Amino acid sequence: LGAGTEALDSDLLSALKESIGDDFKVSKGVLMASEGGRVMMWNGLVIVIETEVGEIRHGIGFDGKIWSSVMPVPYGYFAGTKADDNQGLDVFIGPELESEKVFIVHQYNFRTKAFDELKTFIGFENAEEAKLAYMDSFSDGSGQEHFGSIEEQSVEEFVAFCETGQTTVQELAA
C-alpha cells in the first residue's frame, strides 16, 4: 500500500484497497495518487495541485468513515507554507487567474464547531463564486456545516501573507 498509511486501521486499509486500488498515499488525511500532483506558479508562489477538476478526493472523516468528493475546481496547497493543520495552506483554483482578489474561508469542525483551518480561493471574481466552489467541494452537501466566514484580500496582501511561511488564522488576524 501507499506511503503514510501506517497509522490507518488494517480493516480500513483493506476497504480502501478494495474500493480504489493500492496505488495511493495518504497526505493531510486525504488519499492521493502516488505519482504526486501537478505544480504551477501563481504570482511568485508555488502551488502543488493534488486534485484536478472533476477528480475524486477520498479521505477519512472524524467518524472513521471513508468520504469521497468530486472536485469542482483544481485543489492543492501553497508549497513552503504551514497552515493551522500543520500542512501547506490549501487552495482552490478558479478559472480567472488574473483576478486581483483572493478569498479566504474559515472552516470549522462540524461536530465541535471549533475552528479547523483556512481554505484559500484564487482565480475567482467574487466571494459568491468562491463560496459556491467551497460548497460544491462537499459532494454530500455538508459544506454549510463547515463554513464559518469568508474574507477578501488583494493578491498583493495575500502573497505577503504567504511569504511569511506561517499561514495560520492567528497570523491572518495580525
Short note summarizing the structure:
The chain has helices at about 10-20, 125-135, 145, 155-165, 170-174; strands at about 25, 30-35, 40, 45-50, 55-60, 65-70, 75-80, 90-95, 100-110, 115-120, 145-155. The chain has about 170 residues and is α+β, with helices and mostly antiparallel strands. The N and C termini lie far apart (about 40 Å).
Secondary structure tally, helices: 5
Describe the strand arrangement of the main beta sheet, using strand numbers. Answer: 3-4-7-8-10-9-11
- Indicate the percent of residues in helices: 10-25%
Strand content: 35-45%
Largest sheet: 7 strands, mixed
Distance between the termini: 42 Å
- Mean pLDDT over the full residue set: 81
Going by helix content, strand content and strand pairing, the class is alpha+beta
Radius of gyration (CA) equals 16 Å
The total of beta strands comes to 11
- Note poorly predicted spans: 1-8
Overview of this protein structure:
The protein is built from 5 helices and 11 strands, in the order αββββββββββααβαα. The chain is globular. 22% of the residues lie in helices and 36% in strands. 26% of the residues are buried. The strands form 2 sheets. It has a 7-stranded mixed beta sheet with strand order 3-4-7-8-10-9-11. A 4-stranded antiparallel beta sheet has the order 1-2-5-6, with helices on one face. β9 (101-108) and β10 form a beta hairpin. The protein is of the alpha+beta class.
List the helices and strands and how they pair.
Blueprint lengths: L9 H11 L3 E4 L2 E4 L4 E5 L2 E7 L4 E5 L5 E5 L4 E4 L10 E5 L7 E8 L6 E8 L4 H10 L6 H4 E8 H9 L5 H5 L1
Parallel strand pairs: 8-10
Antiparallel strand pairs: 1-2, 2-5, 3-4, 4-7, 5-6, 7-8, 9-10, 9-11
